[in-house]
């Protein structure tokens, strides 16, 4: 299985991205890697993809959004509007009032928290593991310079090369002020904090 994945990645490197091959993997949508990913139920050592990345000394960037109440609110606002990142500022400014449900919040937040902890545990000691946070990674219309430099070093580039790695990266917020749109935002914050303690203690 490892040899098959090696061959697949080598083909992609040659045909698609000879300079710098990278994959954008999401917790719940791993695309072509789905057959070799297992959900965070067993110990990290049982995960084939994690072990393959570590033995190949792959650089791993773990993007996290620490504020889960903001994350959940963004998801619901975008779903309600029927838009995600359209690039239209009018969408981001559209007024609405939402009350978020606790049951839906738990089903959204808890798997994220568990998988985040799983990934962090899995890559303890892996020298090519880098964790970056949203929104700190965003610097106006591009990747923030400090975060770009960290990523450049992980990729093997020298000091000052971070700015050359990334072109314009405009990010449209689903709503600049989610507290103004969500009637029970403070309740979501308390719930997120409670879930965080539950996962940490588990």
From TrEMBL:
<dbReference type="InterPro" id="IPR027417">
    <property type="entry name" value="P-loop_NTPase"/>
</dbReference>
<protein>
    <submittedName>
        <fullName>Uncharacterized protein</fullName>
    </submittedName>
</protein>
């Amino acid at each position: 299985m490892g040899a098959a994945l090696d061959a697949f990645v080598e083909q992609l490197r040659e045909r698609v991205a000879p300079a710098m091959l990278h994959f954008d993997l999401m917790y719940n949508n791993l695309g072509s890697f789905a057959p070799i990913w297992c959900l965070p139920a067993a110990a990290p050592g049982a995960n084939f993809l994690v072990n393959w990345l570590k033995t190949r000394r792959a650089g791993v960037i773990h993007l996290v959004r620490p504020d889960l109440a903001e994350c959940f609110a963004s998801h619901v606002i975008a779903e309600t509007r029927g838009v995600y990142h359209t690039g239209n500022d009018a969408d981001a400014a559209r007024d609405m009032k939402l009350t978020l449900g606790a049951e839906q919040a738990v089903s959204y937040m808890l798997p994220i928290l568990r998988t985040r902890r799983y990934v962090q545990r899995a890559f303890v000691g892996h020298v090519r593991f880098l964790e970056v946070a949203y929104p700190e990674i965003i610097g106006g219309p591009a990747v923030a310079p400090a975060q770009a430099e960290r990523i450049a070093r992980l990729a093997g580039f020298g000091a000052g090369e971070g700015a050359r790695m990334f072109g314009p990266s405009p990010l449209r917020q689903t709503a600049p002020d989610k507290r103004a749109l969500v009637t029970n935002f403070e309740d979501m914050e308390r719930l997120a904090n409670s879930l965080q303690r539950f996962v940490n203690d588990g």
